[in-house]
Amino acid sequence: MSEILTISSLSASIAGMSVLSGISAKLGPSQIMAIIGANGGGKSSLAQVLLGNPEYAIEQGEIIYDGVDLFTLSVDERARRGLYVAWQNPVTIPGVSVFALCKAAYEAREKKVDNLSEFKQKLEKLAIEVGLTESHISRFINDGFSGGEKKRLELLQLLLLKPKLVILDEIDSGLDKSGRELILKVIKKLKERGTSFIIISHYEQLIEKIKPEIVLEMKNGQLLPRIS
Amino acid sequence: MDNYSLGFHSDTDKYRYIAPKGLSREIVVQISKQKNEPAWMLETRLAALARFEEMPIPTWGADLSRINWEDMHYYLRSVEKPYAKWDDVPDSVRRVFEEIGVPEAEREYLAGVGGQYDSEVIYHSLKETLAKRGVIFLSMDEGLKQYPEIVRKNFGKIVPYGDNKLAALNTAVWSGGSFVYIPKRVVVDLPLQAYFRINAERAGQFERTLIVAEEGASVHYVEGCSAPAYSSASLHAAVVEVVVEKEARVRYTTVQNWYKNVYNLVTKRAMVAAEARMEWADCNLGSGVTMKYPSCILAGERAHGEMLSIAVAGEGQQLDAGAKMIHLAEGTTSRIISKSISQNGGRSSYRGQVKITPKATNARSKVVCDALIMDELSRSDTYPNNQIMTGDAQVEHEAYVSKIGEEQLLYLRGRGLTEEEAQTMIIRGFLEPVTAELPLEYAVELNRLVKLEMVGSVG
Predict the structure, then answer these.
(1) CA-CA distance, A160 to A171, in Å (whole number)?
(2) Residue A176 banded pLDDT, cuts 50, 70, 90
(3) Under 8 Å between Cβ of B255 and B223
(4) What is the pLDDT of residues B351-410, one digit of tens each?
(5) What are the residue ranges of helices labelled H in B185-292?
(6) Is A95 in Cβ contact with B432 (below 8 Å)?
(7) Average pLDDT of chain B to the nearest whole number
(8) In the predicted model, is pLDDT for residue A209 greater than 50?
(9) How close, in Å, is residue A104 to chain B by CA atoms?
(10) Degrees (nearest 5) of the Cα angle B255, B104, B111?
């Protein structure tokens, strides 16, 4: 079985400060890797490096994603190739509707344009599935959304874009019990379709319920096997 | 970098008349004579010319010191008269309007169209159903010929020639523009559109527009403009007067896309009666220098004035625009939303005035100015002026200056949008409060033009 993600001896820094120090990890298709650890340990930095945030400098090491050197791909190329990072604090974009975002993201990922009304129907169905309503689709991106609604919008895009590798950065923060159950449902559904996950969380119960294949702990920029 | 797609021109060999360069009493007399005008109009023109010569060049706002007033043609007549069918318009002129897409827009979504080419209106049409209901949509010259009393009653009443130097110039040499009259209670559903094209080099265009909406009437008037890419300067100095009678509603939308050699110095003002509503939607993308402050004189009780504006200032452009809301009566309300984008060294300014006079009790006004600055070379300034002479007015003023959010760009790129797509989407979002108010066709056109302006500015 070929890996979807191989991280080898990766070190990265932001503004001259080291945040990741020689980390290595492997993840196969349909596998889930959970990364736990206290705040400031480097969990979110790893998510941002995978996303391609230009503020992070790669000092050494490599990441092979789906057979390609990840660092040769721009942020948008990574996304179009099925890498999806769900943000811990998704941004607000006034004047741009959720519909416009989803349509543009879908077209970028699928490399095709859908019939507008069919696409709208599909999106509305998914919105209801993640506990949002039709009205959220016509609202501006995260504008006036509660913390939970923002996370649900990330899940909506996950279901729509069917990525190969998903990084969930503290996806459960801001969500109530029903929201956390929804996450489990979405993860299960996509995993069955072959999606792999990196789940970053400090919520132990969530990790227990997800039953990841791999559990690692991030501490001082180092990724270590979980000692339970 | 120049993404201007309307920079072509047609030759001027077949023009019927081109006034010699420069401004003189003889030229003003010649214009009036060619138009066969009544004596009062010639008198008005000459008085305005004298006033123009007396008045100093404004030293506030944009830099006008480099205008060479003598190196310009003040009147150029391309065809003998306006045509009612595009097929009759001479080829060289018709092709220009086809290139711009005016006949196509007319077929698809307009109630009437006027086309002006240099000094004269070359085409005019109005749907027959509207004509039967008494709607008048003519060139200003035809308006003066056919409805001299209405024109005389209103001409120069809202914008007198002594108002400012450019209004004096316009009054002296005006030619073309639209005359619109909407009778009582008539609602015109589709927009009336006028398209202004400067074609000749070193040309001035001085159209004059008068719109009268009678009690309870409603109309949406749209104007667009463009010019060839000449290296020499051209001058556009229009005057627009709008009479909005009791309970009437007028919306005046401008999509200004002059080439960057054009000085665009325009005076627009509306007189708004009780319970009436005047809305300016003003989109400035082109021109080298723009000075324009559409105004509403809110003269009747509970009259409402509105200004929605967009300015996109790029390399070498200085767009000094804004609005004036003059509250004269009880319960009058106004709203100004100004959105500007400055890039590649462009400079945009908001200059606005809200005046609430002692009689305007219970007045409300809200001003929102948002500026987006794309790079370190560009600049944005805000010059608000509030004069409040009552104790119970509610006046709000909000001004924001921002840069394109790096986080927003990253979020969208992380969803597969290229940098350019992401930037376009964020800018559209920024302009959305204004574009959402425009009819779909204009919103689409505006988004297309903004995108064209922004191409290559990523980096």
Answers:
(1) 17
(2) confident
(3) yes
(4) 999 999 999 999 999 999 999 998 899 999 999 999 999 999 999 999 999 888 899 999
(5) none
(6) yes
(7) 93
(8) yes
(9) 7
(10) 70
Q: How many Cβ atoms from other residues are within 10 Å of residue A121's Cβ?
A: 11
Query: In B294-418, where does DSSP find H-type helix?
Result: 406-413
- Tokens 């007033």, located at residue: B69
Contacts of B414 in chain A (CB under 8 A): 51-52, 75-76, 78-79, 84-85, 87
CA angle A180, A183, A185 (to 5 degrees): 115
* Chain B positions in Cβ-Cβ contact with residue A94 (cut-off 8 Å): 429-430, 432
Token duo for residue B272 = 């708004």
Window 59-98 of A, Cβ < 8 Å to B: 74-76, 78-80, 84-85, 87, 90-91, 93-96
pLDDT of residue B8: 86
Q: How far apart are CA B427 and CA B397, in angstroms?
A: 22
Lowest mean pLDDT among A12-16, A141-145, B2-6, B432-436: B2-6
Q: Could you read off the pLDDT of B322-349 as tens digits, one per residue?
A: 999 999 999 999 999 999 999 999 999 9
Containing H/E element for B279? strand B277-284
B451–chain A Cβ distance below 8 A for any pair: no
What is the architecture, at CATH level 2, of domain A5-225?
Answer: 3-Layer(aba) Sandwich (3.40)
pLDDT at B459: 39
> B398: which chain A residues are within 8 Å (Cβ-Cβ)?
none
Min Cα distance B82 → chain A (Å) is: 42
Closest CA to B365 of B348, B401, B389: B389
At B302, is the secondary structure helix, strand, or coil?
A: coil
CA distance B379 to chain A (A): 23
Please indicate whether, in this complex, the C-beta atoms of A96 and B405 are within 8 angstroms of each other.
no
Give contacts of B408 with chain A, Cβ < 8 Å. Answer: 91, 93
Residue A145 sits at φ, ψ, to 5 deg, of -75, 145
Token pair 């005035």: residue: B353
Q: What is the CA radius of gyration of chain B?
A: 21
Q: For chain A, what are the domain ranges?
A: 5-225
Q: Which of B418, B431, B433 sits opposite A76 (nearest CB)?
A: B418
Put simply, the answer to whether B410 touches A51 (Cβ < 8 Å) is yes
What residues of A are in contact with residue B411 (Cβ under 8 Å)? Answer: 87, 90-91, 93
| Complex confidence, ipTM | 0.96
The CA-based angle A108-A111-A114, given to 5 degrees, is 95
Instruction: Find chain B residues with C-beta within 8 A of A95's C-beta.
Output: 428-433
- Whole-structure pTM value: 0.87
| Residues in a beta bridge with A13 | A18, A57
Q: What is the pLDDT of residue B284?
A: 93
